[in-house]
Amino acid sequence: MANIFIIGATGGVGSKLGRLLVRSGHSVIGLHRKPDQAAGLADDGVSPAQGDIIEMTPEQLAQAAQGADVMVFTAGAAGSGLDRTTAIDGDGPAKAIEAARLLGITRLYLVSAFPEAGRQRERSDGFEHYMAEKKRADVAVATSELEWVILRPGTLTDAEGQDTVTMGPAILYGSIARETVARALCALINQPSVCREIIELTDGPTPIDEAVAALRQG
Ligand SMILES: NC(=O)c1ccc[n+]([C@@H]2O[C@H](COP(=O)([O-])OP(=O)(O)OC[C@H]3O[C@@H](n4cnc5c(N)ncnc54)[C@H](OP(=O)(O)O)[C@@H]3O)[C@@H](O)[C@H]2O)c1
């Protein structure tokens, strides 16, 4: 069983992932910004570590992740401004890579976004910037020496979670529930032989375990 550090542990995907990983038998440390989020994480069996990814140095992030052997980055600025998007979605994963190196952590999972996201909506500077920062983070992770997985879910919804998906290196765009993303991410973490892969993910008909096994065979 692994000791997993989640950056974005209180978020839609991150909170569900924490619960699933704990249920799978892993130890989980969750980064949270506000003091009053600690109790909720602890109730889920997640060890809370307080910190703001914007302010934290890689050394401070490594301190928060002490004892972890896997890192997950699923934080996001969620449209709270261009500078915050740069600092969280863009710079955050690079800090996670640095912190992983400091701790000797080799596995990193990044929740990113489909390049097709937002194609059917009116263009806005904020969204274009978000997509550029997501791509900048993908590049930092994909060019690192770590055993990384970049997961690109479609449009996230709060619908009920499913145990089936469509998952692969190139799939058509669609949406997916945050709970389903968490289930897929948990299955990927439980299958470390899947690494150095960019994986697109939407709702779909394939059982998650089968979809992950197909990636391994590939
Ligand atoms: N929305 C979409 O359709 C979509 C599609 C594809 C991919 N994504 C990406 O998928 C990921 C997960 O999405 P989600 O909906 O689960 O996101 P979310 O609910 O907005 O959660 C974001 C998480 O990041 C944390 N966070 C924000 N600023 C932080 C900071 N300065 N320091 C530390 N933590 C900070 C939040 O903490 P607080 O609880 O304190 O706010 C929260 O835990 C994000 O990276 C998002 O960009 C989104």
- Name the assembly state: single chain
CATH architectural type: 3-Layer(aba) Sandwich
Tertiary shape = globular
Q: What is the beta-strand fraction?
A: 15-25%
Q: Main β-sheet: number of strands, strand sense, barrel status? A: 9 strands, mixed
Q: Helix- and strand-based class?
A: alpha/beta
The H-and-E topology, N to C, reads as EHEHEHEHEHEEEEHEEH
Distance between the termini: 25 Å
Radius of gyration: 16 Å
Q: Numbering strands along the chain, what is their spatial order in the largest sheet? A: 3-2-1-4-5-6-10-8-11
Mean pLDDT: 96
Number of domains: 1
CATH homologous superfamily designation: NAD(P)-binding Rossmann-like Domain
The distinct ligands, each listed once, are: NADP nicotinamide-adenine-dinucleotide phosphate
CATH topology: Rossmann fold
Low-confidence stretches: none
Q: What is the helix content? A: 25-40%
Name of the CATH class = Alpha Beta
Topology:
Elements: E1 3-7, H1 12-23, E2 27-32, H2 38-43, E3 47-50, H3 58-64, E4 70-73, H4 82-103, E5 107-111, H5 125-142, E6 147-153, E7 155-157, E8 164-168, E9 175-177, H6 178-189, E10 197-203, E11 206-207, H7 208-217
Parallel strand pairs: 1-2, 1-4, 2-3, 4-5, 5-6, 6-10, 7-9
Antiparallel strand pairs: 8-10, 8-11
Helix pairs in contact: 1-6, 3-4, 4-5
This protein binds NADP nicotinamide-adenine-dinucleotide phosphate.
Residues 8-14, 31, 33-34, 52-54, 74-76, 78, 88-89, 111, 113, 117, 153, 155-156, 178 line the site of NADP nicotinamide-adenine-dinucleotide phosphate (NAP).
